[in-house]
C-alpha cells in the first residue's frame, strides 16, 4: 500500500502513536509522518505509507495553518498546559490594540529559540529528556517564517489567534515571545493544525473513520500528492478582526 492519508490526529495521542494506529489499520509497516504534533494538540497529520515516505521532506516544506488559544496571565516550563501553570504578576492588562501591534512584530522572517521541552536533539538526546533530568538546556535561535498572525478574540487573559507559518516554527515559543513583548505571561492552552499546504482538516480522516473504510476512500496516490504540492505558496491571510471581536 503506497500513498498519503490526511489524518486528523486526536488530542491525547502522540504523532508516533497515531502513525502506529494507522499501520495496524492498513497493514503497511513502512510509514512516516510530515511534521510532529504534540499530544495535547489535534489536527492535520499527513501520514505517508510505503513508497510515499519519500514525500515526507517535500510535505514538511508546505506552509502550515494553526488555530490556538493561550493565556497571558500564566506560563509553564513547556509554555503549554502540559506542565504545571505558574502565575505571572501583571501590572497592567494590555489593550486589544497593543496585542495586535505586538502580533505584527512576529510576521515575516524571525529569530526563534525553540522551547527547552521539545523533541529537538542535543548531542543525540531529545531536549525534553534532558529537561526531565533537571539539566539546563540551551537551544540556539533559528530563523523561521510566520506568513501572518491574526488575533481572533481577546478577553483578558484569554487570547485566541490563527497563524500561517513555515517549517520549524514552534507555536509555543511564539506565544512565549508574544507575552514577553507585552510584559505578561504566555502559555498555550489549545492548538489545532488546520491545514498543511493544500491538505485541510475539513477533508481529513479520523482514526475511527479509517477503521471500516476501504483504502481507495482515504488513500491519496503518490503522483496526485506530488502534483498537489508542486508549489508551496502560503495561504491567503484571513480578514482582520474588528474591535468588536476584541474584548477588554
Task: Describe the structure in your own words.
The termini are far apart. Strands 1, 2, 3, 4, 7, 10, 11, 12 and 13 form a nine-stranded mixed sheet that branches. Strands 5-6 form a two-stranded antiparallel sheet. A two-stranded antiparallel ribbon has the order 8-9. The chain has two domains: 92 residues, Pseudouridine synthase, CATH 3.30.2350.10; 126 residues, Pseudouridine synthase (2-Layer Sandwich), CATH 3.30.2350. It is globular, with a radius of gyration of 19 Å. The chain has 248 residues and is α+β, with helices and mostly antiparallel strands. The protein contains eight helices and 13 strands.
Main features:
single chain; 248 residues; alpha+beta; Pseudouridine synthase; 2 domains; 9-stranded mixed sheet; two-stranded antiparallel sheet; 8 helices; 24% helix; globular
Give the topology, please:
Elements: E1 3-9, H1 15-26, E2 31-33, E3 42-49, H2 56-60, E4 64-71, E5 74-75, E6 86-87, H3 96-104, E7 108-112, E8 121-122, E9 125-126, H4 127-132, E10 142-155, E11 158-165, H5 171-182, E12 187-196, E13 199-200, H6 207-210, H7 215-218, H8 222-228
Parallel strand pairs: 3-12
Antiparallel strand pairs: 1-3, 2-3, 4-11, 4-12, 5-6, 7-10, 8-9, 10-11, 12-13
Amino acid at each position: 500500500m503506497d500513498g498519503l492519508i490526511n489524518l486528523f490526529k486526536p488530542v491525547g495521542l502522540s504523532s508516533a502513536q497515531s502513525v502506529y494506529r494507522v499501520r495496524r489499520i492498513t497493514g503497511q509497516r513502512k510509514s512516516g509522518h510530515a511534521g510532529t504534533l504534540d499530544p495535547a494538540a489535534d489536527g492535520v497529520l499527513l501520514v505517508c505509507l510505503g513508497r510515499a515516505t519519500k514525500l515526507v521532506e517535500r510535505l514538511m516544506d508546505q506552509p502550515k495553518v494553526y488555530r490556538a488559544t493561550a493565556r497571558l496571565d500564566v506560563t509553564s516550563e513547556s509554555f503549554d498546559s502540559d506542565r504545571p501553570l505558574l502565575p505571572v504578576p501583571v501590572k497592567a492588562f494590555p489593550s486589544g490594540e497593543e496585542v495586535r501591534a505586538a502580533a505584527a512584530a512576529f510576521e515575516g522572517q524571525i529569530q526563534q529559540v525553540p522551547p527547552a521541552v521539545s523533541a529537538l536533539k542535543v548531542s543525540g538526546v531529545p531536549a525534553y529528556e534532558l529537561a526531565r533530568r533537571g539539566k539546563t538546556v540551551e537551544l540556539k535561535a533559528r530563523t523561521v517564517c510566520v506568513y501572518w498572525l491574526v488575533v481572533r478574540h481577546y478577553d483578558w487573559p484569554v487570547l485566541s489567534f490563527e497563524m500561517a507559518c513555515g517549517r520549524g516554527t514552534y507555536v509555543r515559543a511564539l506565544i512565549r515571545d508574544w507575552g514577553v513583548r507585552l510584559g505578561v505571561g504566555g502559555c498555550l492552552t489549545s492548538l489545532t493544525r488546520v491545514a498543511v499546504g493544500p491538505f485541510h482538516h475539513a477533508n481529513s480522516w479520523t482514526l475511527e473513520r479509517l477503521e471500516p473504510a476501504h483504502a481507495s476512500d482515504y488513500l491519496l496516490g503518490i503522483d496526485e500528492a506530488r502534483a498537489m504540492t508542486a508549489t508551496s505558496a502560503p495561504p491567503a491571510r484571513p480578514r482582520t478582526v474588528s474591535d468588536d471581536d476584541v474584548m477588554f
